[in-house]
Amino acid sequence: MRLGLAPSEKDWIFVSDAHFTGRDSESMEAFLGFLDHEKNQMGHLVILGDLFEFFFGFKDFLSTEKPSAFSDYLPVLNMLQSLYREGIRIKYFEGNHDFFLHSFFSEQFRMKVDVYPDGCEEKLGRMRSYIAHGDLSNPRQWMYKTFRRILKNPWTYRLIHLAGPRLSRRVALKLGEMSHQKYHNAVQPTPPPAFRIFAHEKFLNGFEIVILGHSHFPEEVEEWIDGRRYLYYNVGDWMAHRSFLRFTPPDRFKLSRYVEELANEEIGS
Questions:
Q1: What is the total count of domains within the chain?
Q2: 2 inside domain
Q3: Would 133 disulfide with which of 17, 49, 240, 263, CB 3.0-4.6 Å?
Q4: Quick one: what percent of the chain has pLDDT higher than 70?
């Protein structure tokens, strides 16, 4: 345990792609147990998108006039609020299942969460790092990028608001099932190469660390360029791997998986 440290000296925990639907109580309970286990040594929690299968910043997300369509999300959101109140900084990078979250956490839960619609640069210790969900990593997926631009724009957001939480969620969950059948049901023997290529390009642009999600495939890649060491991490997913990345200042990274009985164990051990 790293107790008695300032938040800047405590661990950063990166998680991605839980895709909670409310029908996955075991996975959600494990996630809550993981956050509770880590809270004393954690200074930052970084969520690399797709925490829920459909996450839209509705103004009436917590409507008191009728049962909320998202009441089954509350255990996770209440846990995030509890972590925030204990002084843990939270960053949320929107994924391809996240929409219109820029003021959601402050308005609905009175907590400050740094929300990033796309990737951004971050200083981790002394290292220049690039962090993103990762869904824009493959330049060949131009059809997806076009579809993403259609979804993530003010006009579509207005239509979703008009449709309301219940109808929008039903449609989104159906589209999500189709997406998972197409992209994530098949067992992949090796990680998708596009993410490593993307990371390499970032290294050439001066970033020393690249951290992504989206692939659902935990991965650690070390690359040497002109005698300098560069690292790419894909956090993987919470759905199947229970994987997460730990950064311990000033320069230690560890890709791990959470095992309730053992607290956690290193991937590959």
A1: 1
A2: no
A3: 49
A4: 86
